[in-house]
Write a structure and sequence with these properties.
The two termini are 35 Å apart. The chain is flat and about 65 Å long. By secondary structure, it is low in regular secondary structure.
């Protein structure tokens, strides 16, 4: 910069930014509604992802 300070930067290329399901599986369940009367609660709901075969990869390759 103008003051002669040395700077550096790190660039990261990421395919995923959350826990990966590529190397694990997940069981998605909907919570049962338990409650009395009153105002209606908003619906939530994740969606279930169908089981698909993971992309082909080298078994000796580390998953990161």
């Amino acid at each position: 910069n103008q003051d002669g300070e040395k700077r550096s930067k790190v660039e990261i290329v990421a395919d995923e930014v959350a826990p990966s399901l590529r190397w694990a599986s997940a069981d998605i369940r909907r919570n049962e509604f338990k409650g009395g009367g009153g105002a209606s609660a908003g619906g939530g709901g994740g969606r279930s992802v169908p089981n698909e075969a993971p992309p082909a990869y080298d078994m000796d390759e580390e998953p990161f």
